[in-house]
Amino acid sequence: MPRKPTVRARGLGAELKELRLQSGLTTREAGDRAGWSHTMISRIEIGKRGVTTEEIATLLAIYQVKGDDRDRLIELAREAHRPGWWESSESSLPSQLAALISFESQATAITDVALILVPGLLQTSGYTRAVMAATGIEKNVAETRVAARLGRQAILKGEDGPSLQAFIDEAVLRRPLGGGEVMTNQLDHLVESSKDPRVCIRVLPQTSAGHIALNGPFTVLEFKKAQPLVHLEHRRSSLFLDEPRDIDAFRADVATLTETALDPAESVDLMTEIAQNYRRQ
Questions:
Q1: Concatenated DSSP letters for 90-114?
Q2: Which CATH architecture group holds 86-280?
Q3: Under the GO molecular function aspect, what terms does this record hold (predicted)?
Q4: What is the pLDDT of residues 198-210, one digit of tens each?
Q5: 153 close to 121: Cβ distance less than 8 angstroms
Q6: In the chain, where are the structural domains located?
């Protein structure tokens, strides 16, 4: 039975595709320059074909990638067979972001469990800027992150976009990040987003004594053919999980949260009520 591509291989492929597009090359043109078929380029980009360090060096030369980025991608190619993918980064945009954006665009369903902040795919620009300011991100770096986050949200507007199920802790909605106006706009946006049949927002109420998500926030990405992934993100590190036993554990957590959270209609009512409270302030 063929081995399923690991998240590292899929992430490497996503970065290589982005580099090819930035170079203005088609798969056929890249293949011609490397002396390979365009099919081989395509299979590398979707993680279905392993790539040697020599092959990755050839592609990076064609795409004119040098320095630290070249070294990092060659190292990722060496480890592409390993399951899971952990990264620690000080950069303004982590290198895993290209992979995350690619995975979100390929996903058929996304489940985001949010305990601290509104999920990125549902944030307004004002809310995102407030988060950046509160966490000490420099303004020039913050604007880059705001643009990247808003760009990711385009997948929800496409005809073939994924469904999104978001579990948001009530405390997130009551924390006045950026002040009343920012939060009012954010809550209005959540209520409006809930009208999309592909978007389901469930609030985890404060009346609940506790729930499984207290273990920490996470995102589950489901695909039509590929293995599901779990994404965990922290301040200076992030992690992709692709082992079946890990995926099953997080899916079980989602099933438990479904029993704990308010239903979609109750969630909209609560978000509307909280927005009205902000307007009165």
A1: -SSS-THHHHHHHHHHH-SEEEEEE
A2: 2-Layer Sandwich (3.30)
A3: DNA binding
A4: 999 999 999 877 7
A5: yes
A6: 7-82, 86-280
